[in-house]
Amino acid sequence: MTRPTRHILRLLSWGRVLARHGALRGIENDRNAPVQVKRLCRIARIGTRQPAEPDYAGAFQAIGPAAIKLGQALATRPDLVGEIPARNLLSLQDSLPPVDFTQIRAAIEGSFGRPLEELFARFDEQPVGAASMAQVHRALTPDGRDVAVKVLRPGIREQFARDIDTYEWAAAHLEALGGEAARLRPRAVVANLKRWTYRELDLRREAASASELAEIMGRADGYRIPATDWDRTNGSVMTVEWVDGVKMSDIAALRAAGHDLPGLAKTLVLTFLTQAIAGGFFHADMHQGNLFVQADGTIVAIDFGIMGRINRQARLWLAEILYGLMTGNYRRVAEIHFEAQYVPAYHSVEDFASALRAVGEPMRGKPVSELSVGQMLDGLFAITRDFDMAVQPHLLLLQKTMVMVEGLATALDPGINMWDVSGPFVKSWIRDELGPEALIVDRLRADFDTLQRLPALIRRIEEKYPPKGGAPEQLPLPDVDLIWSRNAARKPDGNHWSGYVLAAFLGGLAAWALSHPDILTRLAG
After folding, report:
1. CB 354 within 8 A of CB 374
2. Nearest alpha-carbon partner for 311 in 280, 340, 283, 337
């Protein structure tokens, strides 16, 4: 267990870095920030020079790998960090200087227990990419396949564990302040960050996620996932097929190669909807560096360390919410929020529908380029405050990915209308999932499952209430108020002096009775 002083020293050290990048100014000026937090910010920035424009992304980059992951998570939480910091954090690049190759070689050979030359016919010492958690090298297998080898940075698990321990400590104290800090649920934010990142730190989980997503997507047109080399994959090393293509971030190269950019934008949006709404399992790290476009226009995704999962009921709610916003059915959107218990029951459905209308109407029918994302987010998060809506941790990854997808689609096609692209897909899926046939099938499936469980239920009831045997039932015995129970109720610790007096009295009485057996016999009779 880390001592509080160590947590405080770490926080002050990180606070100094944030202060040097001007990243504490926003907290100090935020009227919703707790007074205690503002006070700590002032202490942390004593003696530092702050730039005119805060660089939140640079600050998190300078603090280290765990901070980079935290910054990426906070980029989707303008309600927590503010609109300007959230926009700046979206530019946070998950990149660090590469680890020396001797350490990478040692990590690979140590994890497999074999020399590098036995695993690969060729292994490029210079990495093609170095991120906060791992770096990637190009290699050739003995059977002649081009592959990408992802290797965890040595010591990264221990470093992340230390930092996340302090994040949890700080979040618990922040939430304990109550008010707005409690509503935003910082402990849940850190818990989600911890879960996501520990998944990234086990590359077998990433390989399994890639395999599962490939199975969900099947033969989706215009989208695929690289195959995993399971013989050269373990918890610290992951090997997948090499992908040749143009990064989606390189718009000029995509245009020069003759790709249909509006078509790519549409494919990207529909791919995300297929994963999130139809499959309930989606790639939650769809930034520009993780998407390539091959010569035939196929989008290839990589890096499946962060994945999101949504159960069927939440997907139904999500689809209805999206469709309701597209069609202007704000009453139904409001009802879903109450059904899902996202809004406390003491609020009015009608009031909430009216608040949604004020945010939704300016967005409908306009291309993304004409929308003010800042105003839209301000409006939505104002609603969450006005209606006491707690943060839903299971939807944070979805929100983060939606922001990424919208940004990518807009970069490819500034005139794209997200509602027009999403509408037919969502409408079709709702019809399939909520239509009469689907309801009948769901009811039959639920009833059949119940019937299947009946025999086991009866057996458990019989085990709990076995049949009566030959012996008669025991007569009910009266409750007896024990002396020590009464004494313990008066004094829980049982150390009251009266206990000793009572014990001495009873002991003396017993000794006297044993020395006069004739009196004892008469009393018993």
Report:
1. no
2. 280
Extract the tokens encoding 444.
């039959």
- 234 and 203 Cβ atoms separated by less than 8 Å: yes
The tokens describing 174, both together, are 């922040």
pTM of the model: 0.69
DSSP 306: S
Catalytic residue among 79, 163, 229, 285: 285
- What's the pLDDT tens digit per position in 203-225? 999 999 999 999 988 877 889 99
Mean of all residue pLDDT scores within the chain: 78
CA distance 91 to 68: 11
In terms of Cβ atoms closer than 10 Å to its own Cβ (0-12, 13-18, 19+), residue 176 is: exposed
What's CA 315's distance to the chain center, in Å?
16
DSSP 474: P
Distance in angstroms (rounded) separating the CA atoms of residues 233 and 211: 13
What was the pLDDT predicted at 239? 96
Residue 449 known to be catalytic: no
**How many whole angstroms separate alpha carbon 511 and alpha carbon 452?**
67
Q: Report the pLDDT value the prediction gives residue 346, as an integer from 0 to 100.
A: 87
Q: Which of 117, 53, 396, 424 is nearest to 273 (CA)?
A: 424
Is the distance from CB of 343 to CB of 335 less than 8 angstroms? no
Q: Is the pLDDT of residue 151 over 90?
A: yes
Residue in this structure with the two tokens 């002396």, named with its chain if needed: 483
Token reading at 319: 């689809």
